[in-house]
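Thread: flavin-adenine dinucleotide complex, take 2
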Amino acid sequence: MFKLIAAEMIVPNIHLLTLEAPAVAREVKPGQFVILRAEDDGERIPISVADWDKEAGTVTVAVMNVGSTTSRLASLKAGTSIPTVVGPLGNPTEIERFGTILCLGGCYGIGSIFPIARALKEKGNKVITVLEARSSYLFYWDEKLNEVSDKVFYITRDATRGYRGHVNRLGEIIKSLEDPIDRMIINGCTYLLKSGSDASRPLGISTIVSLNPIMIDGTGMCGVCRVTIGSATKFACVHGPDFDGHEVDWDELLQRRKTYMSEEVVPLRTSRCEEHMG
Amino acid sequence: MAEPKKKKKLDLKRREMPKQSPDVRRHNFDEVALGYSAETAVEEATRCLQCPKPKCVENCPVEIDIPGFIKCIAERDFATGVRVLKEKNCLPAMCGRVCPQEEQCEETCVLVKKGGQIAVGRLERFLADWEAEQGELEMPEIAPPTGKKVAVIGGGPAGLTVAGDLIKLGHNVTIFEALHKMGGVLVYGIPEFRLPKVIVQREVEYLRKLGVEIVTDFVVGKTRTVDSLLEEYDVVFIGSGAGLPWFMEIPGENLNGVYSANEYLTRMNLMKGFLFPRFQTPIKRHQRVAVLGGGNVAMDCARTALRLGAESRIIYRRSRQELPARLEEIENAEEEGVIFDFLTLPIRYIGDENGWVKEIECLKMELGEPDASGRRRPIPIEGSETIMPMDAVVCAIGNSPNPLIAATTPGLEVGKKGNIVADEQTGKTSKERVWAGGDVVTGAATVILAMGAGRQAARSMHEYLCSI
Ligand SMILES: Cc1cc2nc3c(=O)[nH]c(=O)nc-3n(C[C@H](O)[C@H](O)[C@H](O)COP(=O)(O)OP(=O)(O)OC[C@H]3O[C@@H](n4cnc5c(N)ncnc54)[C@H](O)[C@@H]3O)c2cc1C
Ligand SMILES: Cc1cc2nc3c(=O)[nH]c(=O)nc-3n(C[C@H](O)[C@H](O)[C@H](O)COP(=O)(O)OP(=O)(O)OC[C@H]3O[C@@H](n4cnc5c(N)ncnc54)[C@H](O)[C@@H]3O)c2cc1C
Ligand code: SF4
Ligand code: SF4
Ligand code: FES
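Output below.
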């Protein structure tokens, strides 16, 4: 069993969980993920590691509540335990001295891009961070991200902070910078990964995305996580999760993520009022 | 004058094992075969000729004293029978159920020529189940602690065997398992209706009681490397199986509704998908399911799909004769109503506008000359393309070892297909203090071979541990 040290809804619908998992904390590197189960006989779901403390033996994750397992995780209080935290899985994000890096994060990716930005900064890169959300109240870890970035930009749909719009403003942000961008790294929902890659393609910026297909084991055993990169099929859990965003078959990934849409999301998204009003 | 002693008349009638009827069992996940009653077991055991040079034993990979335990059953001394069985086989409840007996012990039974070979597997199963019904399993003697530490990677039959053998010899044993449950293919692959999971759990509990430490949710090569384990443990055994699924590599393979057998069976068995939404891992209820392949894995997938209410078919490129699955499971599948399309090769999946598979295109085949495996090679018949409507396809054409451990363990020799190279007699690998056995060495094989390999490795590891 893995004990929950801290649990907090940091912004609406995003929950920061700190878990006791010393074996994972000892080995984890930026860009890797764990597989969690919220309860016995529960589903296994992949979640990126957003921070860790080797000494204390803990890992922190940012979980967006979208379905049955994530909502179960969201309901947990500090002091309780969950049956599975296994990892670190997947390959770490490549951390080299590239020059100037643009880190783009949205929703849970605001959390998981943090250790990547930190490691890149420590490696001597110039780090530009761009955060994207529907509205300003959905940003979190502002201070932490500012600490490891040379500059942080914000984009909101409603202009409550920074640029108004969505990733379509990325081009302008890049043009406003004095240095050319040597590499872009994106963490977050599939749409952000795709639209960010679309935006960087015409600018010729090499773009790394952390893909998030459906997974079960996370070790290469089931093949459910297969994605098409260029013309080859890859297992995201072992060959990724980071891939070249300009090579990903996005339509296929978006389709495959919808496999269980009717079973999982529909029951959750309806209010089920009728069931309670008998 | 005394009459010459009359030879006992040969009884060639193999006693049937009761099964759930096909009409009932195709709607449930309960075990199909119900096991012998004590009466039937004794009758079957009495048929055994107690050959002085038993042919059956020669063809059992772990050389169980088959006439020995059968004699005990005939004499109704079941407790002794269990002991005889367990001298060589620590997991008889499983082997009795899943061994391909018709090509092992029962194939060489002297009565086979007359069609009356002794049902060795059923008798083995009977004894193991009898023992379980007695409540507490008999605890073996454990040698005084040696202070030596053993790390076992993988909780499948190979790893379980090594752990069981070495703990009894007084060593300190820890099993590291990647998944959240122990048992390997026995829990995530083979379905409940063929091998009830309580049986696997019982064996795992038994090991725990013997003092084996069990660490689940631990991926060697990720959570810790073999080299890091070697700093803490005297020896390491790798029994990580052959878990990497193969696909056909034909167009349309990444459409929704195309599964690997591992995914399909894991969702069902390990995650209890068939009880969704009571258990959370979802599984689709498809109308028409095609399973590609002809081995045990394919039979298990097809029979699972059937139980979920689908029209279920096996698409196999050779003929019935070449099906590699256990005969009993082929017959069970046929009885339950699985449709077989022999001499058929899928060449393309066709999707609908939402990215779901809707059709599968196949070629008809004919059999040519035998190939390297000795089976007749299937050759496509030109112009024989047909299209079948299909909502889901399960690819059960094979697995190879997962490269994860090999890739993170310098100095470990690996063969062409990703299998770890190990000595056939001892299981020793090219790396100091590291042994390996089971599917990770042989490629996908059988439970009993994995156990046999585990036993041999344990013997060699013990010798080494005593020498240091
Ligand atoms: C490598 C990786 C890292 C991830 N990191 C994070 C993270 O840090 N924080 C976070 O909130 N989310 C992360 N995700 C996504 C997260 O795994 C899914 O949101 C989660 O599995 C949904 O589970 P659920 O039971 O709550 O929802 P469900 O009810 O199961 O499904 C809701 C929707 O989520 C998607 N989904 C379902 N199962 C999975 C699955 N096993 N894997 C991916 N998507 C799935 C599907 O589109 C589904 O329709 C990551 C995914 C991957 C592959
Ligand atoms: C569906 C199906 C049906 C079958 N039917 C039969 C049958 O009827 N009769 C028969 O004799 N055989 C059958 N087999 C084959 C048989 O199950 C295998 O040959 C046998 O289980 C191999 O045992 P093993 O211990 O080598 O590996 P496995 O049983 O595969 O166990 C390996 C274990 O190692 C774990 N592992 C893998 N990598 C790591 C890692 N890096 N770190 C930690 N743990 C790891 C895995 O999670 C797994 O639990 C069947 C196989 C399948 C898939
Ligand atoms: S272990 Fe398998 S091969 Fe050996 S006697 Fe038992 S059923 Fe036969
Ligand atoms: S060969 Fe057949 S008859 Fe002879 S001992 Fe073995 S099981 Fe009995
Ligand atoms: S999650 Fe199973 S192979 Fe990637």
